[in-house]
Amino acid sequence: MFEGLSTRLSGILDRLKGRGALSEADVQEAMREVRRALLEADVALEVVRSFTDKVRDRAIGAEVIKSVTPGQMVVKIVHDTLVETLGTDGVALDFQAVPPVPILMVGLQGSGKTTTTAKIAKRLFEKQKKKVLMASLDTRRPAAMEQLAVLGKQVGVDTLPIVAGQSAVQIARRAVEAARLGGYDVVMLDTAGRTHVDEALMAEVAEVERAAKPHEVLLVVDSLTGQDAVNVARSFTGRVNVTGVVLTRVDGDGRGGAALSMRAVTGKPIKLLGTSEKMDGLEDFHPSRIANRILGMGDIVSLVEKAAESIDAEKGMAIAKRMQSGQFNLEDLKDQLDQMLNIGGMQGLMGMLPGVKNMQKQLAGAMDDKAIKRQRAVIQAMTPWERRNPKEIDGKRRRRIAKGAGTGPEEVNKVLKMHRGMADMMKAMGGPGAKRGPMAGLA
Ligand code: GDP
Ligand code: MG
């Protein structure tokens, strides 16, 4: 089972003695375990292969952070690669179109289309104050239209009045027209499914798509069906212009295999997750949550992150104090740059200060190793006195420092400016009620 993959990985790798870079042999053994776990979770073979290749490339030679074990390090790499495969950031439903915006729901019978239609309608109505009309195009099961009407009443959303004898396409046209005349923002079209993918189903869905010209086509799939869900998705994406996937019954899925394959195989983003039968059982898709589920735990990932953060925690703490009291000098900045090159030093430090979590990523992104090394060289070219008294660095000193660091004076200016900016920011944060101040704007 998937549960405990992280434990197994740690087990394998932690038997190995010594620290430092991960060797190819260590990583190979861990990758066999990853591969087995993914296959057990019903992840598509092609995805398993490219996934393990990616992890292997990243893990071999990776430095093991002080205070975590090699196993934990690999778990972290697996986690990050999972998140990437799942499609980093969540993609929201798109309503950038002239209302009424049509949303077409497609999928097999029993996948959760009708339930999800009502869930989405409820959310749009309650959270975004949108006026929503729902229509069932399910002409095969008489109870299906009734089911949507009942759910509509329950969540307070209008449903299109039922007219007997109309085809799915006719109902779709009528729904869009009624939504237009009624001033609705969104019109949701809930189609009939089949027990399996067949030509009649595909033809009907494609015809409805042509008639309704939906802005979003959401494919609803049951995550419990694992690889089948992915095969279904492949069939649908070949025939209609699927814009997003809703994975249902995630509440019962301890494995996450469908989620992992879905994005990689279909190229379509998972937009929402169904997490219960209830009308509020709808969640935005967060790749890291699924990654944690796949790994069977969240602890090791956060542990490694913490370890990275707490590199030289004591020193960091002391600097944090100095920052807040406005005494953050260039010596401190240099220490920070050193730590940053050691992975996550800045993040560790920032993590100790209130209200800055959101900023960490930005900071890390803005500074690559080359830039950091350049900045460090500039500070190294200063005298200790200059580092403690950055305000006293005049034009002459700037030129000397630049020369010593092998760059131009503008590089020195940049470092001084960065230091000033950070010192000011820190001082502001230390002051009363300043938590929401400068950071809020940056986050
Ligand atoms: P449809 O045939 O695609 O319209 O599927 P339905 O919406 O009628 O759903 C079929 C069954 O799955 C119903 O009993 C739903 O309550 C249930 N269901 C739908 N989504 C979820 C979900 O996310 N979690 C759970 N546990 N059950 C769900
Ligand atoms: Mg239905």
From TrEMBL:
Instruction: Please report the record's description of how this protein sits within the membrane.
Output: Peripheral membrane protein
Signal sequence, start to end = none
Q: Which residues form the SRP54-type proteins GTP-binding domain?
A: 269-282
Q: Can you state which reaction this protein catalyses?
A: GTP + H2O = GDP + phosphate + H(+)
Keywords on record:
Cytoplasm, GTP-binding, Hydrolase, Nucleotide-binding, Ribonucleoprotein, RNA-binding, Signal recognition particle
Q: Which SUPFAM superfamilies match?
A: P-loop containing nucleoside triphosphate hydrolases, Signal peptide-binding domain
Q: InterPro entries from the entry?
A: AAA+_ATPase (IPR003593), P-loop_NTPase (IPR027417), Signal_recog_part_SRP54_M_sf (IPR036891), Signal_recog_particl_SRP54_hlx (IPR013822), Signal_recog_particle_SRP54_M (IPR004125), SRP (IPR004780), SRP54 (IPR022941), SRP54_GTPase_dom (IPR000897)
Localization per Swiss-Prot or TrEMBL: Cell inner membrane; Cytoplasm
Q: Name one GO cellular component term.
A: plasma membrane
GO BP, sorted A to Z: SRP-dependent cotranslational protein targeting to membrane
Residues that coordinate or bind GTP:
107-114, 190-194, 248-251
Which EC numbers characterise this protein's activity in its record? 3.6.5.4
GO MF terms on file?
7S RNA binding; GTP binding; GTPase activity
Q: Which PROSITE patterns match?
A: SRP54 (PS00300)
Among Pfam families, the record links this protein to:
SRP54 (PF00448), SRP54_N (PF02881), SRP_SPB (PF02978)
- What is the annotated role of this protein in its UniProt record? Involved in targeting and insertion of nascent membrane proteins into the cytoplasmic membrane. Binds to the hydrophobic signal sequence of the ribosome-nascent chain (RNC) as it emerges from the ribosomes. The SRP-RNC complex is then targeted to the cytoplasmic membrane where it interacts with the SRP receptor FtsY. Interaction with FtsY leads to the transfer of the RNC complex to the Sec translocase for insertion into the membrane, the hydrolysis of GTP by both Ffh and FtsY, and the dissociation of the SRP-FtsY complex into the individual components.
Q: Record's family?
A: Belongs to the GTP-binding SRP family. SRP54 subfamily.
Family annotation (PANTHER family): SIGNAL RECOGNITION PARTICLE 54K PROTEIN SRP54 (PTHR11564), SIGNAL RECOGNITION PARTICLE SUBUNIT SRP54 (PTHR11564:SF5)
Q: What NCBIfam families does the entry give?
A: ffh (TIGR00959)
Per UniProt, subunit arrangement is:
Part of the signal recognition particle protein translocation system, which is composed of SRP and FtsY. SRP is a ribonucleoprotein composed of Ffh and a 4.5S RNA molecule.
Its domain description in UniProt is:
Composed of three domains: the N-terminal N domain, which is responsible for interactions with the ribosome, the central G domain, which binds GTP, and the C-terminal M domain, which binds the RNA and the signal sequence of the RNC.
UniProt protein name: Signal recognition particle protein
Q: What is the lineage of its organism?
A: Bacteria, Pseudomonadati, Pseudomonadota, Alphaproteobacteria, Hyphomicrobiales
- Gene symbol? ffh
